Amino acid sequence: MVPRRRRSPEDVAAASTFEGERRVLLAAPRGYCAGVDRAVVAVEKALERYGPPVYVRKEIVHNRHVVDTLTEKGVIFVEEADEVPEEALLVFSAHGVSPQVKQTAADRNLQTIDATCPLVTKVHREAVRFAKDDREILLIGHDGHEEVEGTYGEAPEATTVVNNPEEARTVEVQNPDQLVWLSQTTLSVDETMEIVQILRERFPNLQDPPSDDICYATSNRQAAIKKISPESDLVIVVGSANSSNSVRLKEVALEHGAARAERVDFANQIDEAWFEDARTIGVTSGASVPEVLVDEVLRLLADYGYGEAAEVVTAEEDIVFSLPKEIRKALQDAGHEDTGRGGRTR
Q: ∠ CA(88), CA(35), CA(270), 5° rounding?
């Protein structure tokens, strides 16, 4: 954890380059999306139903606070399914897994709960369908990210990963007339469209997916940060370094007018020296970040003279996914009545 540089509000005020009112613009939507909420609740319900330990492959979502909190409750996070004792309970993370991972779990007689976000599952199904139709797939995403590994694993013989615009300019395909693109759900909307444009210039018959692969939450959070960035001397993005959508939010803020943008996991990583030139601070959080972490940032800002946050709303979200079928059945068997809802409100 990065240590706080503890400077008093009086010291910061004395070093400030401006006088007068300080304000906070709070982006909305922000924080938990429906897929993240569903995955975290699924693990919590599994702990309630079966007791610890509950094993989770990779991080259930990319957030340090969530992972640390679940670890304290008895969750054991592993890198691969073959690390889990035979016949134990394993949860697949929200990012999804490849068929090979599911087969490894089956070979070890593991009881599994698939907490893959339904929007990621949609991309998996598209990959399978396009491969069966003899389409060549260009998967826009980041090599090494769990979501990309899972999607690629559905049709490895038909799929090529395109990481960035530079690769889009050089990627080679076998049949440019049987080509389709898919994407990781948590990418920058603007960069994805830039890559698609480059690919389309090279391959005019490139086919679009049947619906947008960038998830609604990623799009909405990027739209919200674009709205407040031009007015912000500093944007604080709450989110973890391995959270693709959180990292993208920082980049989008800088690209759309923020004088400065910083990403932190927790409020105690904020350097109060950042406030010296920041009359207006924008605040947002990635799609895997619980609201309690944003509240801690707002309390810190209040301590340094920033007034009540003005929420800037660019979209309303009311999407809720059902819990994974495996946990719904387990809860029903145990006599629980409310088993359908896949998340909680903020």
A: 100
